[in-house]
Amino acid sequence: MPRHLYRKPRTLTLPTLWTILFAVLLTLPVRAELPPGDIGSQAVLQGRIEARIAEAGLGDAIGISVLNLQSGRSIVGHNATLPLNPASNMKLITAAVAMLELGPDFQMRTGLYGRQTGDAIEGGLYIRGFGDPDLRSADLIAMAQELVARGIRKVDQVLVDGSYFDDQILPPAFDQQPDEVSPFRAAIAAVSVNRSAYTMRVRPGASAGDAARVAVDAEGYFEISNRMTTSDGGPLNVIAAQGAQGDKDDKMSLRLSGKVPLGIAGASYTRRVESPLHYSGHVLVEALKALRIQVPRTVKILPTPRGAALLASRRSAPLGQLLSALGKNSDNFVAEMTLKVLAAEKVGLPGRSEAGAKHVLEVLGKLGLPIANIQIKNGSGLFEGNRVAASHLTKLLAAVHADPSIYSDYLAHLAVGGVDGTLSRRFKQLPAPRIVRAKTGTLADVIALSGYVLGPTSERTVAFSILLNGVRGKHHAARSLADEIVGDIALHLHAKAK
Question: How many domains does the chain have?
Answer without folding.
Answer: 2
